[in-house]
Amino acid sequence: MSADFIQLLVGGILLGGIYGLAAFGLSITFGVLNVLNLAHGEFLMLGSLLSYGLFIGLGINPFVAAILVIPVFMVLGVGFYLLLLKPIADKPPHQLLVASILVTLGASLFIEDITAYFWERPVTGISYTLPPMEVAGVVISSTRLLILLFIFALACGMQLYLKKTFVGKSIRAIVQGREGAKVVGIPISRVSALAFSIGMALAASAGAFYVTLFTVTPVMGIPLTIKYLCVVVLGGLGSIVGSVLGGLILGVAETLTSYYWGAEWAPTIAFILLIGILIIRPEGLFGAKR
Predict the structure, then answer these.
(1) Residues near 276 by Cβ (< 8 Å), separated by ≥ 6?
(2) What's the CA dihedral at 189, 192, 197, 199 to 10 degrees?
(3) Which of 59, 119, 215, 238 has its CA 20 to 30 A from that of 92?
(4) What pTM does this model have?
């Protein structure tokens, strides 16, 4: 493989790691609450802007910012759930899905308008770089490599949290079957609020790294949410391994498509992958058959 191709793979894997981290939050939100949160991409956008503000105002690097935004957005996530989602939580499944789409779409547009009012200019990215490293003649960005390792460490930590803690086991139980979770006494409402806040925090944390690579605008949220949905379908509902792997597949596919066929084709590849996985394995790569 040529050095250029390897560098493209590294760039695609990094982008995919960001997609996977944010998409897992959307996955557990849909799995636990049975709602489709179209405002999910806005949380990444807000996390990017907060990280940018911390870097410009206080000199805090993206790695520290990715940790600092988590408790902030967990609190915001609980408030979002209590204010907008809890009032519709008891609706029948088909009504709940439609209501959640309308409610979160409205919230997404509201967040976009408010953000555009206070933050008029697009953020072109954080200029945070470390000395590059060279491996077998291939120059690799140390910053991007550390970001990728950080994302994988955060994903592994979340996987352990879901497997070992009572809250994590409760979230997994609800994903596997809401009625069964009620029977064994799991507090659905409280776990749902916490699951939603975790999903929001993961998206915001991914945003701290997204702003190091791309321009951030107030209207980027809904297109990102659509990509996250593709990643969730690729990986399988409720699987952090599947979300990360699905994100990596999409990130590499977008990067290679942009390089060989043009950037205008990159958004299309997500839907091609989505259609393909729905035909071949509808439950996703790591999703359980129901």
Answers:
(1) none
(2) -170
(3) 238
(4) 0.84
